[in-house]
Amino acid sequence: MAEEPENLILKMLREIRAKQEEHDGRFDKHDAQFRELRKAMEDWQETTSTGVGFAAHAHLRTQPMEKEIEELKRRVAQLERAH
Predict the structure, then answer these.
(1) Which residue in 1, 43, 52, 55 has a CA-CA distance of 20 to 30 Å to 9?
(2) Coil, strand, or helix at residue 5?
(3) 1 within domain boundaries
(4) Domain span at residue 39?
(5) pTM (2 d.p.)
(6) Count of alpha carbons within 13 Å of 4, Cβ hemisphere only?
């Protein structure tokens, strides 16, 4: 008995399965890259918000001193005009 011809549907299904396995590997790689990017963005956000927080805090602390310095300058100028 002669050998049967290869089933074309099975051949196509094998090709599809092979391509899916290739895609699975790519998706795993992309998932890992997205996780790294997400982590980097979260770190950047934390660093930025901390930096802005420090700057805002420093501004709030120096604001009263700046007002006091301006008041002292005004008083010195007033005294100098009086003499």
Answers:
(1) 1
(2) coil
(3) no
(4) 7-83
(5) 0.48
(6) 3
